[in-house]
Amino acid sequence: MRGLAQAVTSGLLIGAVYGLIALGLNIVFGTMRVVNFAQGTLLMAGMFMTYWLWELGGVHPYISPLVTAPLLFGLGFAVQHLFVSPLLARERAREPMSVLLLTLGLALVLENVALLFFSADFKTVTTDVSMQTFKIAGLIVSVPRLVGLGAMVATSLVLYLFFMHTDLGRAVRATGQDREVARLMGINDFRIYGVAYGLSAAMMGIAAAVLVPFFYIHPGVGTSFLLKAFVIVVLGGLGSMPGAALGGLLVGVIEGAVALWVQAAVAQIVLFAVFVAILFVRPAGLLGVERR
Amino acid sequence: MFTSERRLLAVENLAVDYGGYVALSGVSLEVRTGEIVCLMGANGSGKSSLLNAVSGLVRPAAGTVVFEGRSLTDVPTYRRLGLGLAHVLERRRLFPYMTVLENLLLGSYLPAARARRGEALEQVFRTFPELRARRQQLAHTLSGGEQQMVAIARALMSTPRFLMLDEPFLGLSPRLVAEVAETILRLNADGMTVLFTEQAIHQSLITSHRGYILESGRLVLSGTSAELLGNEMLQRVYMGLDLEAS
Ligand SMILES: Nc1ncnc2c1ncn2[C@@H]1O[C@H](COP(=O)(O)OP(=O)(O)OP(=O)(O)O)[C@@H](O)[C@H]1O
Ligand SMILES: [Mg+2]
Fold first, then answer.
1. Ligand 1 atom showing the smallest separation from residue B45 Cα
2. Which residue among A131, A166, A286, B236 has its CA within the 20 to 30 Å range from the CA of A142?
3. Which CATH architecture has domain B1-84+161-246?
4. Which residue of chain B is at minimal alpha-carbon distance from A291?
5. Cα–Cα separations (whole angstroms), residue A112 to A36, A41, A109, A117
């Protein structure tokens, strides 16, 4: 029982990071109806930025989002402006397939560029917090993972305030709900797409910052996180923000608990089995009623 | 009846083409400051296509749209509201998962409108008192009539000079039709210029100064509403249908 409680705790904490990535995926999907296959790659880019800031500048990973988040926002905005928008302008479908393929292509390019420059070696960053743990009610809590949970909660809160209480945030939601009407309200929909894509990229700077102290860094690191984020987003309901956060925690817990009894690889299979089972019961996902 | 000679909107030789299907061709019409003009026609005659070409949602294949003496050809859709040109789409098209208030706030998204937001909200709640109590209700849970009110209110939030309404009476009970018609007249009395489309000919003509009739993408008849009300062909062909339909 103690073992299970411990596994659930650890799972919950890593699940928070999954949730953060899923949130990023959902912002883009909710606004543009595009599944962003480059989300994991942006996380990888964020992790390398964090790594180099630490190696070259001695910048602590937890400070690095001050630099990486704006950089990634700019990168995301530029990618949207240069590649996605021209394609979207020509595509009339509500769920544009060509853009989806474009993000996949982008992911492959970025990943190979990273391979070329950084090689496939695993890199790690060992900071003061990396190995820190403390005990609470007999459970071992890893400090960097707890920071991850805190970061997710804080980021979700800021996003909530942004989307619900600012004009720009409302404009992003409006564009996701009805792009034509958004234009009639004076909203430049392509600019909004840039903001949404940039925002979800910037969030990967935060996810990277909390991951780097306890997770290896290499060019393929984004892929495994992306797969989990897909599962979470579909589980929680496409486009649902609370669904993404909740789904992330759930996936982390399932993964952690199952890994107690079986190997990690089998745990992945169990995870996907649970995923399929939930979809049978609730095809729209756990919280997937509202689309915004 | 007040009509100044100043042209607010001039559409000339407009053509709209959907990948080879010609929805409008050679359409010219004008709306003068202070007028209520209605554009009538059966399903598929091209009414929405015309309004959409004016607001920019549809790119014309030919012809020009001039608003306050300025050609809109190179003005992107999202810049047109800022010129004072508001468009309420067919079937209301509220942001469904937002509250009434959020929909209204989006109507004043533009910086200039944002500065006058509080005032505009008060004005809109004076025009539609029933919306005040429904501020926090999600738009998609409103009745059709309420949705139409919100759609018009949202368009008014930027205090435009010109309001285009696409089938504002669609799907409304006779009582609500009268209410919306009265709103249009009241707005006009306060200085708003209005262009609206409708299939219900009689109701349209008693709510407007002038009218145009579209048939298969071409204008076939135009005149003052009083003239059109007395037009025999119109009575036989359209109002007969009107009566049957209702
Ligand atoms: N996006 C589109 N693609 C192809 N054809 C279209 C498109 N939009 C409209 N049409 C066609 O153009 C013609 C005119 O359509 P439009 O919507 O302007 O008519 P309408 O007078 O508004 O009709 P209704 O009274 O039914 O709203 C119709 O035959 C319609 O099928
Ligand atoms: Mg129409």
1. 21
2. A286
3. 3-Layer(aba) Sandwich (3.40)
4. B97
5. 18, 10, 5, 9
